[in-house]
């Protein structure tokens, strides 16, 4: 299991909140045009950077009030080669925007971090293709090579971890985890599911997690579920199994609509913020290591505020005491040998 920062779940004692639906907030609430749902495009102008900063500050203030940690997920979900080409960016311009995103996160961390609100910076990665449809699936090695470029940029920029969000088939998740392992950067894998609780590619969530762990020697620090309403996956979490202990985070949608319905929807379905917060409290009873809560499509600071109100006190973190070695530096090291094989201990129930 990848570990570096002692605050990183599931080892740390800190409960974290993170942001909501960045892109849906910018489009539907702030009236900003985002071609291809690419928020990183705003980083090319001072005005765009100001919009991004103002967005995160709403959540950082929530975390401060709640005395909770905060995970700064960089606005780089679409900042990979394929999506950048659609927007007219070359590889050098893309790398610079990825670096700029992490610098912006670092500035926000320095402004808001405190003893009661520690902050982690996560380099956010999205799928190569559509987040809802597993078209043009890559092999593990193809995914490993493709995403390595963005991961390397993040590692050299001093992130605490890399989070891949809205992954819809296992092979891409495995490739990303291996690319992170290649350069010794902690990673988090977040799968999305359909209304039946299965991945868009058809695998059960349990099987996808176990597949990634089996092929990466349990490298991901933890797993998350995102871009689905709790009603879509709650029944899957009622099943027994150690795999549930690997899920430490949830970033749910506000809407109960399916991915296909959301894709076709021309207005924002923001659901009921308070009800969603109460559903997160219920999820805390099903996920023994739930320690990171935030939102996805359709959610904003109201929803995350309700999550903090109803669920934060119910989150439980597991404290491991097997002499785990913590490397709290942010120095990049290029190491092709897995951490586990170098003698650094991690743990997994």
What does it look like?
The chain is α/β, with parallel strands linked by helices and 349 residues long. Helices cover 39% and strands 12% of the residues. The protein has eleven helices and eight strands. Strands 1-2-3-4-5-6-7-8 form an eight-stranded parallel barrel, surrounded by five helices. α6 (170-182) links the parallel β4 (161-167) and β5. α2 runs parallel beside α4 (91-112). The protein is globular and about 45 Å long.
List the helices and strands and how they pair.
Layout: E1 16-17, H1 22-29, H2 46-66, E2 69-73, H3 81-86, H4 91-112, E3 119-125, H5 140-157, E4 161-167, H6 170-182, E5 187-191, H7 205-216, E6 222-226, H8 230-233, E7 247-252, H9 259-264, H10 273-286, E8 292-295, H11 301-311
Parallel strand pairs: 1-2, 1-8, 2-3, 3-4, 4-5, 5-6, 6-7, 7-8
Query: What is the overall silhouette?
Result: globular
Radius of gyration: 18 Å
What share of the residues does DSSP label as strand, in percent?
5-15%
Sheet with the most strands: spatial strand order: 1-2-3-4-5-6-7-8
Q: Give the H and E element order.
A: EHHEHHEHEHEHEHEHHEH
Distance between the termini: 11 Å
Features:
single chain, 8-stranded parallel barrel, 349 residues, globular, alpha/beta, disordered C terminus, 8 strands
Summarize the structure.
The chain has 349 residues and is an alpha/beta fold.
